[in-house]
Write a structure and sequence with these properties.
5 strands; Rossmann fold
Length: 255
């Protein structure tokens, strides 16, 4: 794959998609995910890690809410990564991440991820470049380790435009039902938009052993469909099977 340039990628998705058709197809895909998740949970041989990255108001929470509304919560988790705690800072940067990766039979969604430990310190400049460069290598090795253990990793960048982000952040200041989403820091981060885009493009280039999916995020129905399809396709590719009966007792009871 050539170097990804975010400025050259449409944030709205294909112009010829019909909204009603795509939403109907999305519902079918979500039902398929729910069915495959039951087999994944029962077989306990594989797992899925869905990584959602994106700028503030890109729609990470909404993506999770829409796709996983029918999933059994006993085998699906969401892990969110914010500023490391004092305890987390005292360990290597992947320590807190490794503790919440999926076990066999689980789907885990990272709402932000270990990539924040490259993004924020690079833009804010509080970790030197030598350490940052090593983190790219550590992340590649970490993800390879997870895949070797049977975890399928799906990496998505929710690609929202700066204009659309402004509209969504402004709504959080004007709509009482969205006041709770407002964070002063989101506006501070917005001022460094170009810096974040540059670091993201560097991440896409240096951590591409598992490919990145650039998801148009200006239209929510396009975003949800695109991520759901990736997840469904990954589950299909696993060739999941219901586990066999592991006993020979009571077979005379079979009706």
């Amino acid at each position: 794959m050539g170097k990804i340039k975010l400025g050259a990628i449409d944030t709205r998705g294909p112009k010829n998609w019909d909204k009603a058709e795509i939403k109907a197809e999305t519902q079918k895909i979500i039902e398929e995910i729910t069915a495959y998740q039951k087999i994944l949970s029962a077989s306990k041989k594989r797992s899925v890690l869905l990584i959602l990255q994106g700028m503030d108001a890109a729609g990470k929470d909404g993506t999770v809410r829409n796709i996983f509304k029918g999933i059994n919560p006993t085998s699906c988790r969401v892990a969110a990564f914010k500023k490391p705690t004092e305890l987390e800072f005292s360990h290597d940067f992947l320590w807190r991440v490794h503790q919440v990766v999926p076990k066999n039979g689980e789907i885990v969604v990272f709402n932000r991820s270990h990539y924040e430990d490259i993004l924020v310190p690079t833009v804010e400049g509080y970790i030197n470049n030598d350490i940052i460069e090593k983190r790219y290598t550590h992340i590649n090795d970490f993800e390879e380790l997870l895949e070797d253990h049977g975890t399928t990793i799906i990496k998505c960048y929710l690609h929202v435009s700066k204009d659309e982000q402004l509209e969504r952040l402004s709504e959080r200041l004007n709509n009482p039902y969205k006041f709770w989403k407002h964070n002063d820091g989101d506006w501070d981060t917005r001022e460094k938009w170009d810096d974040y885009m540059a670091v993201y493009e560097n991440i896409f280039d240096k951590c591409d052993k598992i490919p990145w999916n650039i998801i148009p995020a200006d239209r929510n129905w396009v975003k949800v469909y695109s991520v759901a399809k990736l997840l469904r396709d990954a589950l299909v590719d696993m060739n999941l099977e219901w586990p066999k009966l592991e006993t020979e007792r009571f077979t005379d009871k079979i009706i």
